[in-house]
Design brief:
The chain starts with a helix and ends in a 6-residue tail after the last strand. It contains two helices and eight strands, in the order αβββαβββββ. Helix content is 18%, strand content 45%. With 147 residues, it is α+β, with helices and mostly antiparallel strands. It has a single domain (23-141), classed as Beta Barrel (Porin).
Amino acid sequence: MKQFLYSIAAVMCTVSAQAGIVNYECELHSLEAQGWIPPVVLLSVDADNKRARAFDGAIRSANELARVDENTPANAKFKLTRKGEYRLSWRLTLSSNSTRQYRVSYTATVDPETNKLKMSASFPQANLGNRPSGIGRCQPISAPTLF
């Protein structure tokens, strides 16, 4: 009987841990046509445990460059802003049209009330002035999480 109760408790903990995860499929409109901001981003946010993951075409390219399974999502730092928005950030190494590789820092801000998304990229080690950005909307989806 005791073992049975432990099993039920373990299942309930697993279900409640998954209950806090929200998956988003986000469509973005890039404010510049250089390709640094992808048109679609998948996000999994676990606000209760302050963790998140992201996946898009840029992450897939970075995975290929790093010789990692191309479908591996990126771990993102999670922060809840004063406005109640989710701010996610992650870093990738990407190659440009030339043979040069750039370290790119991405920041995505999702408003869970309106599902609006703002995303930007910066190049902290390259001393580049441009800062690609995009805006869009996210839609909660019931797909499996990125965790």
